[in-house]
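In this supplementary section we document a worked example of the pipeline. Step one takes a protein sequence of length 161 as its only input; no multiple sequence alignment statistics are reported here. Step two produces a three-dimensional model, which step three serialises into structure tokens for compact storage. The input and output of this example are shown verbatim.
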Amino acid sequence: MSDAATPKWQSNFPVRQSEEHDVSRRQFCKVACCSALAVGGGFLAKEKLFPQPHATEPKLVARIADVPVGGYKLFNYPTEHHPAILVRLSENEFAAYSQSCTHLMCPVHYQHEKRQFFCPCHDGFFSAEDGRVLAGPPPRALPRYPVEVRDGEIWIKPMSA
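The serialised model returned by step three reads:
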């Protein structure tokens, strides 16, 4: 096309429509580097902004006589804002877990006859023996807390960091 046949508006806007969304290598590298820095900074700041709660002292949960075989006891651990559950699986076997489902934090309920925990929100099931996911949408096992029985009392020991 000659200049005489080209409309005036096209000569004022020389970028072809097919090229207006093209990204140069330099622009791409800037965006990629800035994104990587932002993600890396977020991971580094995560522990400072959102520290994970850690208990430093053992916690007395119950006396052995207070929890019958097949029974459970609700308590809070590692802080007063974190619900937990202690279950008595057999005469001498106890297990303690976070009571919050790993899917959407709904409270789980103990079903002794099936030796499992049930989350009613989305039909999640966890093993009472080791906390692993048996069925449903939960992405990972229930957090388990170390239990120690001494002098007829059930204690939850702090987790090693």
